[in-house]
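Revision sheet: structure tokens.
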Amino acid sequence: MAHDESIKISIIIVSYNVREFLEQALLSLQKSLKNISNEIYVVDNASSDGTVSFLKRRFRDVSFIENSENIGFARANNQALARVRGEYICLINPDTIVQENTFSVLLQFFQDHPDAGMLGCKILNADGSLQLACRRSVPTPWVAFTKVIGLARLFPKSRLFGQYNLTYLDPEQVAQVEAISGSFMFLKRAVLEAVGGLDEQFFMYGEDLDWCYRIRRAGYPIYYVPDTQIIHFKGESSKKSPFQQRRLFYEAMRLFVRKHFKKGRALIPSWFLLLAIHVSAGLAYVSEIVRRLVWPLVDVLVLTCSLAAAVYVRFRSEFPWQPFVLVHIVYTMIWIICLAAFGVYKQHRLSGSKAASGIVMGLLINSTFTFFFKQFAFSRAVVLLAGAMNLMLAPLWRFTLKWLARKGYGTLSAKLKNLLLRRRSLVVGDRETAGKIIEKMRSHVDGSYLIEGVVLLRADEAEDFVNDVPVLGMIDFLPEIIRRQRVQEVIFSTDKLPYDKMLNAVANSLGSQISFKMAPSDLDVIIGKATIDYIDDIPFVDLDYRLHSPFYQSLKRLFDIMLAILVLCVTIPIRLVIGACQRPEKVTIRLPLAEKSVVHTRIFSRASIRFWWFLPALPSIIKGDLSFVGRDMFYTPTQDQVGYSLQPGLTGLEHVNRGAGLTDEDRKRYHLYYLKNYSPFLDIEILVKTMLKRRF
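Predicted:
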């Protein structure tokens, strides 16, 4: 489209299933472009998260181009490039936040350097570190060779080997470079008209390098300008499986080499470079597979050692070890499947309670095998002994890693603290919105945030506490507060917080390995590097509860009966010993049901018998008056409360999370979560957590 002199800057964003990130990007763009005439195009590549319908109502000045399929980054950008009218054009990723002075600084740079054709700015990762791709060289055969075989990483300060990401240059100095990151590319319209758009042969990767290469060959210099900065939540705008991302990346590298480096134009032949690319891709795939398998392999080692030790203790040298191999494979597979079912190889890798729950479930299944399959019935004592060792060792090595991470030993300090432990968090914002964020974080049943304090925006808001959370200071002192409190995560409220202050806080925390996230004012999410945590994920109006289904009611009833009978048989000696010392006391449990208002059961005195008090109540579980897991048996909800339909239980989510005292609203939230998400696995997990926390 022809140039319109009334429009200074045209913005193009290609989006694919990053709705929440895109909203924040658009909000930051509005602030940065406040006094600059502009137009914004969003090209949506067939997102399935309702991006366009969600954002059209909020950003009426934005032009949306909707594609019926994912046509790739280059082709989608070209759709908008054919329509833009601005004197300057900016291609920017949807998972970025720009500083409020970004475009004014870059426009001034263009005026001061009329020869410049394209500009890139300083780009920060979510942890405050410099994103190396923001300034780099075109991968000539030599540059690509040093990158592929690892010389660039080994010698980053070398001019000979560090050319790919120009790591030998000062990141705070303006520099003329060969290429910049495709996440932010700011160029003159004249450059576009002279060079043309992106090469659509590149689907996702490589099109930015190709464009930069063609722009420089046309005689237009490219500058890296660190006088302004943006945050790029790298990886969100290209959400694909790691294997698919690697495949697309290496395919783009091969295409770039074939397109620009013909035979005989370099000291290193292109076939050798292509071979190096294939080798590097193969090593990357192997590395990814090993990374995924390392957790289950540790468990396989633990399970193998436990079963072998149990066999040796029971049979010594008399046991025929050859048939043991088949038994070992079957038993180990069952335990690994059960552990995987509890999510210990995904989001709960270091959860000792979930590991213990998986081991208990596997023990029940493997014990059943000894009764029904003769080839596995060589010794029930072996199964029980191995199960007991697994129950100790599987959580133990996870607790050990947690302890090492908390102590900060080795490389565990960063990754395990941020990803696998309960995160020590700060909330940054004004008093009102920070209070709302804290309430939502506390209401998150599966939350993993430990709120250490609040950092306010202005001194005149200073108070001692916000929602019982201490105020630790003002945002100007955020880096010092982070160091003093040893926090792992900082959550910014973007409602009244200037983006400049947020970006400066991130930049000033470089090297601290802190995870920075945003909480939009009108969304129930927390946005961070490659993650979106939904902190208001319980829809109270949804009455389609899983535990109201007859199938799940029968499943829960069967689970209660089988477990009660098992515990009754195993604890006969314990009940006899305790029964000789004291008599069970009768208790009455009130029910809100009209046809049966009360039930009676017996328990040992909880004051004198801390753990085994519930044993006399097991017959009531078999009868169906009680359940192992349910609502608090001594709490009676009213008929209009969620827990009204929930059976009284010996334990439940209330017991596991009762640390700070529970309000009726807290109970309602836990009851609702249990009704919606019930499964036997959830019951086992709650029982294991209850025992580990000594809440029986």
